[in-house]
Amino acid sequence: MKINKKIAICIPTFNEQKTISNTTKIINEGLKYLSKKFQTFIVNCDNYSDDNTKQEFLNTETRSTKIYISTKKGKIGKGRNLFNFFEYCKKNNIDYAATIDADIKTLKSDWIKRLIDPIITNKADYVAPLYKRNRFEGSTTNNFAVPIVFAYFGVFIRQPIGGDFGFNKKVYLEFLSQKRNLSTLNYGIDIFMTLNTISNKNKIKQVLLGEKIHNPSFSNMTIMSKQVANSAFYLLDFLKPNLEKTQKIKIPKNLNIIEHKNFPHKKEAEKLLIKNLVNLKKNKDNYQKFSFHNLILKIIKNKSISVNDWSTIICKLVISTKTEKSNILSDLFSPLFIIRAVDFWLRSEKMSAKEIENEIYNLAKLCRKKFLIMTKPKF
Questions:
Q1: DSSP string spanning 145-171?
Q2: Label partner for 168 (CA 20 to 30 A): which of 117, 148, 176, 301?
Q3: Domain extents for the chain?
Q4: What is the per-residue pLDDT across 220-253, written as a single tens digit (0 to 9) for each?
Q5: CATH classification of 6-236, choosing from 2.60.120.260, 3.90.180.10, 3.90.550.10, 1.10.760.10?
C-alpha cells in the first residue's frame, strides 16, 4: 500500500546537545501510531550549533525519517529555524506539521497525538497548547501575549506563544507569504504564527498537554519580551482587528497556573525592577506624545503597575501601531513590561493559583473593553 500523506515534526535548536536525543526519541515514540498511515519525519532545524547537537540528533535511532537543516553560521533565532521548517514542508509537500521545543523536561509522547489529531481529522487548522505552569514563568505570555491577542481579535488563546503548535499545509503556506521583521526571525515567531492564524480566520483548537518545565528563561526575559512585542506591533500595523464579536471567556476547572511556589530568581528580579525604574525615570519624556506622562510618574512613584494602568498602556501601544514604527513602540514597552512582570511576581507570592488566573483573565477582558472604546468611530 502506497502512503501519500506526510507528517513532519520540527525541533528548533541552538546548542541543545544535552536534550536533543531524548526529545527526538519521545517524538519518535509519539509518531508510532501514525506510521502505518503516514510518512513521518522528524526535522531538526538548527542554528549552526557549535556543540554536538547535530551529531546527537543524527545518531539517535528512530523509525521516522530524520532530517537535519541548519542556518548559516552566525544566523541564530528560533524564527529562522521555523521558517526553514516551513520551507522544507512546502518543498516536500508535507500535509501536517508540528513544532516541539527541544528543552522540555516534561515532554511526553502523547503530546504528538494531541497536537496532530485535531488537524488530521479536520477539526482544526492550528492547534495551540494548554500547559500547567509555575506562576513565576510565562510572564510575556500572561502579561502581554494573552491580553494583546484578546484585545485585538476578541479571541482568547491561553498560550499564544507556547512554543509547541500543530498546523496544516494551508497555515504554513500562509506563514511563508506573510510579512515579517527581524524580531519575527528570533523570539517573535510564536506570536507571528498565532496572530496570523487568527487573522486568516483559521480553525483553532487548544489542547491540554500537562505541565511544561524547560530550561530557565529568566536571563533572556528582557530581550525575549521585547522581540515578541516588536514582532506583534509590526504585524498589527497591517492586520485588521475584529471590532465586532468578542469570545466569552471563563476560568476552566483545570487551571493553567499551578499551586506550588518556587521563585529562584527573586533577588535578581528585584534588581531588574530597580534598573528599569531608573531607565523609565531617565526616559520619561519619550512617553509624552502617547499621553502617558502622568501615568509614568505614577508608576515611578508606586514602583508598580496596576491591572487597570497596564491595560491602558497595552491598548494605547496597540493603537499606535498604525502611526509609529514597531521598534519605537517596543523600546517604550520594554521597561514598562519588566516593571509589570516583576510586580506581578512579587504580588503572586501571596496569591492562590485561581487568584492569579483571575487576574490574567481580567486583564484580557479589560484590554478588550478599552480597545473597543478607544477604536470606536467618533461622529
A1: IHHHHHHHHS---S-TT-S-EEEEHHH
A2: 148
A3: 6-236, 266-374
A4: 899 999 999 999 999 999 999 999 999 988 777 7
A5: 3.90.550.10
